[in-house]
């Protein structure tokens, strides 16, 4: 993988983390504390552990996929992958804004579901290009599916 490609995917992931993190500050608010949450709500301390791992996986596996496609002369597929990655990262950051800043619980549950589908598609595409080397990205759609279940349950408990 080329360092410039990793710098691009890493920069995009870092921007997503910053934007999402800014929106997530209300997670420590009275509003969030007052929400009814399901028994499977992870402790707050889990999120700053899980997300950096997932973001690193996204950056590395995506850079590897884009470079492999480019080296194979599949430039259109590399461009498509890059566009879908950008869309995925926009969805990723948007969830935090919808949930924490806008307090749109139903909309954020739907957005989490769309993000899970997008993440599964990215993982599928990366695995088609690099096989087992893309396996770490498989954690991302699993976490997003869990986030969808969690978001949906919070929405149902707080209607």
From TrEMBL:
Gene Ontology biological-process entries = tetrapyrrole metabolic process
Residue ranges of the TM segments: 78-99, 134-156
Keyword annotations from UniProtKB, A to Z: Membrane, Transmembrane, Transmembrane helix
One Pfam family here: TspO_MBR
Question: Does the keyword Phosphoprotein belong to this entry?
Answer: no
This protein's GO CC annotations: membrane
What InterPro entries does the annotation carry?
TspO/MBR-related_sf, TspO_MBR
How is the protein disposed in the membrane? Answer: Multi-pass membrane protein
Where is this protein localized, as stated in its record?
Membrane
Residues in the signal sequence: none
UniProt family annotation: Belongs to the TspO/BZRP family.
PANTHER family hit by this protein: PERIPHERAL-TYPE BENZODIAZEPINE RECEPTOR, TRANSLOCATOR PROTEIN
Q: Name the chain's protein.
A: Tryptophan-rich sensory protein
Which species is the source of this protein? Mycolicibacterium sediminis
The organism's lineage is: Bacteria, Bacillati, Actinomycetota, Actinomycetes, Mycobacteriales
